[in-house]
Amino acid sequence: MATPGRGLAKGLAVTLRTMTRRSHTAHYPEAQPALPPRSRGVIALFEENCTVCMLCARECPDWCIYIDSHKETVPPAAPGGRERSRNVLDRFAIDFALCMYCGICIEVCPFDALFWSPEFEYATEDIRELTHERDKLREWMWTVPAPPALDPAAEEPKEVAAARKAVEKAATEASS
Ligand code: SF4
Ligand code: SF4
């Protein structure tokens, strides 16, 4: 048979125990949380790298990436060559009211145009303001942490090698 008042005593013991523990509550915004540098705060767009391939918009499970573009004809690179067409970005927006921060868009982007920024202070009372348009997404790029340093033993990245060769070639031409 249960002792009368045993449940009450157990409950009070829990209350006493937790009363003496240090609180984990931070007084935000006076005290800023110490978040890991690569926290998933907001998505930044490096639009110079975006080729409007639409992969991110197609793979987003929430359908919250909106992209508009048009085609533009580019003159041939050499005389007698064929004209080429390329996609020009008109709109790139992410609705953070729908986004579930899964990171799929960043993972699938083949051109390194999307990045996580740890910035999280963009709460608003107007839900429409949670749709961040291209300029705002580009601004978030300034808050993206720099990538970790390369392994010293790693192969030189292609773009770095190409830039180095171009500088060396220009220096050789200038000196001859
Ligand atoms: S993080 Fe996920 S839900 Fe948010 S925009 Fe990217 S793919 Fe969509
Ligand atoms: S996957 Fe990358 S390159 Fe393609 S549309 Fe999205 S951001 Fe642009």
Automatic annotation (TrEMBL):
Domain (4Fe-4S ferredoxin-type) ranges: 41-70, 90-119
Family annotation (Pfam families): Fer4 (PF00037)
Residues reported in the UniProt entry to bind [4Fe-4S] cluster 2: C60, C99, C102, C105
Mode of membrane association: Peripheral membrane protein
E.C. designation(s): 7.1.1.-
GO molecular function: 4 iron, 4 sulfur cluster binding; iron ion binding; NADH dehydrogenase (quinone) (non-electrogenic) activity; quinone binding
InterPro entries cross-referenced by the UniProt entry: 4Fe4S_Fe-S-bd, 4Fe4S_Fe_S_CS, NADH_quinone_OxRdtase_chainI
Subunit structure: NDH-1 is composed of 14 different subunits. Subunits NuoA, H, J, K, L, M, N constitute the membrane sector of the complex.
Family: Belongs to the complex I 23 kDa subunit family.
Task of the protein: NDH-1 shuttles electrons from NADH, via FMN and iron-sulfur (Fe-S) centers, to quinones in the respiratory chain. The immediate electron acceptor for the enzyme in this species is believed to be ubiquinone. Couples the redox reaction to proton translocation (for every two electrons transferred, four hydrogen ions are translocated across the cytoplasmic membrane), and thus conserves the redox energy in a proton gradient.
Record-given protein name: NADH-quinone oxidoreductase subunit I
Gene name, Swiss-Prot/TrEMBL: ndhI
